[in-house]
Amino acid sequence: RKIGLGETTRIRGNLDSPLLDLSWFEPGEESEEPAPAAPPSESEFVFDDTPVMKAADYGLDVDMKLNVARLDLGNTEVSEFELGVLLNANYLEINPFSLRGQTGGKISGMVALDSRGAKPILNFNLQGEELRLGLMAVEGQDPATFPPLEIELVLDGTGVTRREIASSLNGKIRIYQGSGQVASAGVGLLFSDFISELFNLLNPFAKSSEYTNLECSVTAADIVSGQVEVFPVILHTEQITILSEGKIDLDSENLDLSFNTKPRTGIGISAGVIINPLVKVGGRLASPAVELDAGGAVVSSGLAVATVGISLLAKSMSDRFLSSKDPCGDARKEIAKKEAAGN
To answer: Which tens digits make up the pLDDT trace of 39-50?
Structure first.
């Protein structure tokens, strides 16, 4: 290890550890004293006007590598964790980034932010297969029940601020999951309150069970100049199938996403369980909102807004996926056909 102090702080070294315990980072029990109200946000955007190379302002010159044999995240563990960080006034690179799940599989990738030219350039790449991470697991859950994950994220963009980079992004997102159990409490641990509430709205069976028995899921999105086309998204559980598609504008950060839900054939639906056949989500990334809940009421400014969401779901495609015995397989074929046509 080397640490040099002066006009520029230089940090060099390699750190190897048999164990890194981050389980303490889990949200703790709520305090009896009410938390103070959060100050109002300075920006209505998730990607605000903060310069992307703000870290360079601190006069750091870093070249560090971290290797951890076992990383304890509280609700799950990973192994063979590798992280390399290279930072100077005009360049940030995280490479390598890789880890293995408890039962095998590997994820690896890199991110680079190069501001040696006129504008910073972002390159992001993440690949993984057969990885059982258990990010939506709870402590003590059998790792063999974690859904296996396959992931491909490729993103490129340029801009001085976070907003500029977001609105210039090009790339794709592909996330596939196989059969396994998703802990209802784990969804709340990993995602925001809104995502957790949306999950419960779309899947009312989650409220009455500790785990959701997932058969498979598919998430696909293509990004061109900051315009995200989300299609298809499939969540296929023991009781229901959910299909989603829509758009996200990373410049305005406006959301226009529709979710169509269909119960699986042959399942018994208990009294009080409400299946919402159509839910539309609008608003912005920083403040998403359910604009239509067909099982309840329109909560936006009228049916005219909701009709836009309904039209996003092409009926023939919707019926095909929701009625299929293998919606995830059909979705992957559709994605492969689309990618082949684009080459």
So the answer is: 544 568 899 998
pLDDT digits over 292-335, tens only? 655 544 444 333 334 444 444 445 567 788 888 999 999 999 99
End-to-end CA distance of the chain: 47
Q: Report the predicted TM-score, pTM, of the whole model to 2 decimal places.
A: 0.84
